[in-house]
């Protein structure tokens, strides 16, 4: 082979190697300690912050960092609850390249849009030592004024999206939320914000727009990393701080278990 052909072949190989996107490793996104914890068990890692509300579990991902900073900055939260969970894919779905193929990524995105399937999900109440229903009702609606229930949207290609949902939960009652969805090659994210003020019984505890919850889904080749954080600027109500934070602990666990169940049923079965 002459020199020119050899040079062309080398450039050709390097060009296509550069196009190949290798799966992000878990150890590149979280600390070594957290990676060991996640790989060795099926438990969530949960942290609650009251004074220093700087996220401590957030994966190293530029898109996610920007979204959380944009949500956290103007909110000035006084309660922050975050959690990490590693969903282990069945072996036949392990990938060394192309983080996730388009079908998997689109499927994951559509499961995040399946808000109606949150109806009836349960969580374990430590204070009551029993399972309790989290969302009694959950539906996408046509808007925050008319509140007409509509079907969960389904996309053939992930795209930025804003939608509204009506959700009734046992802690904060009947409320309207705004969901914003964004995607990047290596992550799919939604942000939830309360459109109505939240109350515990007759006591208002969280004003309009003072709750921001973010859930991120990041592919790791042999697994999927789920990260959720709830940031709250709650009214200073004596005796309710622990109840509010415990509610968001339970909320994070219930939502992550719901989503991992959707992955089992709809994507990686």
Structure in words:
The chain has 269 residues and is α+β, with helices and mostly antiparallel strands. It has one domain (26-267): Alpha-D-Glucose-1,6-Bisphosphate, Chain A, domain 4 (2-Layer Sandwich). 29% of the residues lie in helices and 35% in strands. The chain contains 5 helices and 12 strands. The strands form 2 sheets. Strands 1, 2, 5, 6, 7, 8, 9, 10, 11 and 12 form a 10-stranded antiparallel sheet that branches. A two-stranded antiparallel ribbon has the order 3-4. Strand 3 (122-125) and strand 4 form a beta hairpin. The chain is globular and about 55 Å long. Residues 3-21 have low confidence and may be disordered.
- Tell me the number of helical segments per DSSP (H or I, 4 or more residues long): 5
Our count of domains comes out at: 1
Radius of gyration: 20 Å
Query: What's the rounded overall pLDDT mean?
Result: 86
End-to-end separation in angstroms reads: 49 Å
Question: What's the short story on this structure?
Answer:
With 269 residues, the protein is of the alpha+beta class. Helix content is 29%, strand content 35%. The model is unreliable at 3-21 (pLDDT under 50).
């Amino acid at each position: 082979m002459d020199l020119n052909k050899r040079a062309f072949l080398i450039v050709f190989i390097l060009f296509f190697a550069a196009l190949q996107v290798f799966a992000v490793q878990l150890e590149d996104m979280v600390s070594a300690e957290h990676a060991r914890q996640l790989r060795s068990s099926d438990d969530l890692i949960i942290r609650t912050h009251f004074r220093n509300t700087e996220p401590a579990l957030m994966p190293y991902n530029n898109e996610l960092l920007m979204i959380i900073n944009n949500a956290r900055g103007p909110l000035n939260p006084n309660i922050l609850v975050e959690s990490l969970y590693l969903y282990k894919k069945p072996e036949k779905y392990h990938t060394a390249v192309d983080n996730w193929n388009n079908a998997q990524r689109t499927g994951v995105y559509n499961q995040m849009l399946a808000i109606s399937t949150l109806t009836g999900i349960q969580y374990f109440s430590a204070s009551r030592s029993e399972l309790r229903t989290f969302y009694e009702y959950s539906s996408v609606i046509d808007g925050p004024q008319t509140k007409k229930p509509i079907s969960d949207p389904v996309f053939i290609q992930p795209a930025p999206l804003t939608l509204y949902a009506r959700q009734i939960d046992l802690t904060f009652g009947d409320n309207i939320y705004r969901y914003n969805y964004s995607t990047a090659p290596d992550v799919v994210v939604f942000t939830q914000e309360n459109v109505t003020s939240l109350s515990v019984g007759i006591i208002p505890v969280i004003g309009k727009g003072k709750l921001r919850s973010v859930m991120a889904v990041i592919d790791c080749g042999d697994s999927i990393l789920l990260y959720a954080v709830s940031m709250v600027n709650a009214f200073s109500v004596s005796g309710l701080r622990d109840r509010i934070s415990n509610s968001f602990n339970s909320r994070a666990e219930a939502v992550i278990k719901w989503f991992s169940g959707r992955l089992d049923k709809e994507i990686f079965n």
